[in-house]
Design goal:
Keywords: ATP-binding, Kinase, Nucleotide-binding, Serine/threonine-protein kinase, Transferase. The chain is an alpha+beta fold. The protein is built from nine helices and nine strands. The strands form three sheets. A five-stranded antiparallel sheet has the order 1-2-3-5-4, covered by helices on one side. Strands 6-9 form a two-stranded antiparallel sheet. The structure holds adenosine-5'-diphosphate and magnesium ion.
Length: about 280
């Protein structure tokens, strides 16, 4: 990948794909080849003083792009006086968030297949000493509109490269409220286990259609997270969910990060290690 350069106008922009905190994401069509990408357009003014966040995102993406089928790769980047442009593989299938919302929840076997795939990508990222820090259904995208499309990890905007031998050096409070782990809220040392916790929340969400730590307000939610207080209720949402799946969620939502399974260990859990169809509920 070349160093950043001024926009060569080799793309034309297409429809809006999504909006984030500092960026909008639009389809970008490469004029010469007609190849389509997703272009994250970041307004330099909006990130003034925090440009390092985007530099960091680019550094992480350079380290892991084109290495794993289930990680959205950076294909090009350039800048104009006002904006930074990051061009990614285009995922036309939308966010996992929208699929959960339209389905209500996932059958257990489908949920296990998705979670297994996401964990293989997380294990890859973690092996490269990268922590994502913002795993949630809005940042998990489907490559195509097909029902069985590949799921991809996107948005490395909050991710960090952890130096070898200096694990758990991160202490800032960042992420998305309902997905942040107890150690993040407490400003304690944090590292790869924060991604496993977030996947515990994602898995719960996939199975039930709602998240585990919903409180009256964000303070109540934070307290529930710090104490690890959640349950598989209301019952009617959990009747068809196996004890193995619940055990998997419990393991990912272990309060002490040192006792939480690693991504590799999560993949060894019976729920993910046995790709047998679990009980499928009647519709
Ligand atoms: P932010 O860091 O501001 O959250 P994201 O990288 O998450 O930005 O992008 C915001 C939204 O844009 C995503 O939630 C998704 O809906 C959409 N998006 C991001 N990357 C892609 C992509 N490669 N293909 C399709 N849509 C994308
Ligand atoms: Mg995002």
């Amino acid at each position: 990948m070349a160093t950043p350069r001024m926009a060569p106008c080799k793309y034309r922009t297409g429809k809006l794909l999504g909006k984030g905190t500092y960026a909008i994401v639009r389809e970008a069509i490469h004029i010469a080849t007609e190849d389509r990408f997703a272009c994250k357009i970041i307004n330099k003014k909006l990130i003034e003083g925090r440009e390092y966040l985007v530099r960091n995102e680019i550094a992480v993406l350079k380290r892991i792009s084109s290495q794993h089928t289930n990680i959205v790769s950076l294909r090009d980047y350039f800048e104009t006086p006002n904006n930074l442009y990051l061009c990614f593989d285009l995922c036309t299938g939308g966010e996992l968030f929208d699929r959960i919302c339209s389905k209500g929840s996932y059958y257990e076997s489908e949920a296990a297949a998705l979670v297994r795939t996401i964990f293989t990508a997380i294990a890859h990222i973690h092996a490269a000493n990268i922590v994502h820090r913002d795993l949630k259904p809005e940042n998990l995208l489907f490559r195509t509109e097909e029902e069985d499309a590949d799921i991809m990890i996107a948005d490395f905007g909050l991710s960090r490269i952890i130096e070898e031998g200096k694990l758990d050096q991160l202490t800032e409070i960042c992420g998305t409220l309902g997905y942040m782990s107890p150690e993040v809220y407490q400003g304690g040392p944090q590292g790869k286990p924060v991604d496993v916790w977030a996947m515990g929340v994602v898995t719960y969400f996939l199975l039930a259609g709602y998240t585990p730590f919903e409180g009256e307000n964000s303070e109540a939610e934070k307290q529930a997270i710090i104490k690890g207080v959640f349950s598989f209720t209301p019952e009617e949402y959990w009747v068809n969910v196996s004890e193995t799946a619940r055990d998997f969620v419990r393991a990912c939502l272990t309060i002490d990060p040192a006792l939480r399974p690693t991504a590799e260990q999560a993949l060894q859990h019976q729920w993910l290690a046995t790709p047998t169809p679990y009980f499928v509920q009647d519709s």
